């Protein structure tokens, strides 16, 4: 986390609840130390390790050592441990490759944890994870304390493709058929504003189209802002204008952030309406 505004929010939360958060630079640690000097409780910080995602995270041991040097002297930061994210396993060509990537990522994360311990800063938390590797939880290496599969909570079309089944996908987007302009083309009233336009082009999570119609093998062909395009003679014959269908999104995480409420449904009945608390929290 970088930026005084965000850190002030974390400081206020940290006065009331236990929390930890990540950093990967000296600049971030300097900001954290300054902001939390005004807190009655120290910041609990994990150092992010880059293990193949080519995103954020410490790459070189020398970078890590510089952060440990600072943390040894910090007055308002407690070193909680290290964490990594194996998002690159989405592109693994096979489950065997996914496993190999997962084990290599764990090993690299543990290498940095041992490096910190050798300096007298043992890691309370060594956290790894991504949903494609969640089914490999029994392959956690000794020393790893936490697995973080995010999409796993609801699953989506990409994860269903990796598993070979969409039966575990718990979240769908409801759309109404608003037009049937040709014998094969149907139009739904949800588009990129409700499904996003995300796809996964390769790997065990590779997606076709822009999701999948629940209970079928039909994939939305295209999405516009507020329109969904389907091509299926079978669905065209089975559905009437005004009928509703459920779409399993390619990637559920950003879709959840597009809605104010979620409906819990069982046997076609709405059991409960939940407010989506994270909505609008990206400022």
Give a structural overview.
Helices cover 29% and strands 21% of the residues. The protein has 283 residues and is α/β, with parallel strands linked by helices. It contains 8 helices and 13 strands. It is elongated. The chain folds into 2 domains: 4-149, Alanine racemase (TIM Barrel, Alpha-Beta Barrel); 157-275, D-serine dehydratase-like domain (Lyase, Ornithine Decarboxylase, Chain A, domain 1, Beta Barrel), CATH 2.40.37. The strands form 3 sheets. It has a 6-stranded antiparallel beta sheet. A 5-stranded parallel beta sheet has the order 1-2-3-4-5. The protein has a two-stranded antiparallel sheet with strand order 12-13. GO terms for molecular function: D-serine ammonia-lyase activity. This is Alanine racemase. Residues 170-266 form the D-serine dehydratase-like domain.
Please render the helix and strand layout as text:
Blueprint lengths: L3 H11 L6 E3 L2 H11 L6 E6 L12 H13 L3 E7 L11 H24 L6 E4 L17 E2 L9 H7 L9 E7 L5 E4 L3 H4 L16 E2 L8 E2 L4 E4 L1 H6 L5 E5 L3 H5 L4 E6 L2 E7 L8
Parallel strand pairs: 1-2, 2-3, 3-4, 4-5
Antiparallel strand pairs: 6-7, 6-11, 7-10, 8-11, 9-10, 12-13
Helix pairs in contact: 1-2
GO molecular function, one term: D-serine ammonia-lyase activity
Protein name: Alanine racemase
Family: Belongs to the DSD1 family.
């Amino acid at each position: 986390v970088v930026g005084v505004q965000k850190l002030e929010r974390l400081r206020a939360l940290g006065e009331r609840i236990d929390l930890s958060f990540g950093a990967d630079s000296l600049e971030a640690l300097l900001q954290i130390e300054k902001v939390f000097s005004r807190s009655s409780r120290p910041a609990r910080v994990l150092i992010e390790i880059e293990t193949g995602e080519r995103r954020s995270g410490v790459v070189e041991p020398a970078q890590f050592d510089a952060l440990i040097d600072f943390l040894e002297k910090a007055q308002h930061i407690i070193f909680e441990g290290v964490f990594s994210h194996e998002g690159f396993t989405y592109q693994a060509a096979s489950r065997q490759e996914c496993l190999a990537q997962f084990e290599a990522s764990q090993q690299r994360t543990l290498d940095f944890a041992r490096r910190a311990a050798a300096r007298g800063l043992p890691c309370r938390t060594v956290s790894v994870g991504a949903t494609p590797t969640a089914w490999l939880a029994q392959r956690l290496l000794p020393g790893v304390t936490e697995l973080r599969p995010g999409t796993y909570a609801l699953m989506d079309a990409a994860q269903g493709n990796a598993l070979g089944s969409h039966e575990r996908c718990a979240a769908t987007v409801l759309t109404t058929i608003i037009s049937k302009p040709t014998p094969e083309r149907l139009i739904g009233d949800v588009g990129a504003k409700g499904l996003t336009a995300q796809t996964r082009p390769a790997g065990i999570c590779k997606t076709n189209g822009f999701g999948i119609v629940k209970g079928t093998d039909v994939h939305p062909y295209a999405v516009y802002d507020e329109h969904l395009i389907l091509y299926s003679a079978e669905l065209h014959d089975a559905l009437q204008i005004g009928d509703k269908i459920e779409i399993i999104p390619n990637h559920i995480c950003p879709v959840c952030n597009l809605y104010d409420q979620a409906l819990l449904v069982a046997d076609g009945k709405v059991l409960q309406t939940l407010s989506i608390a994270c909505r609008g929290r990206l400022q």
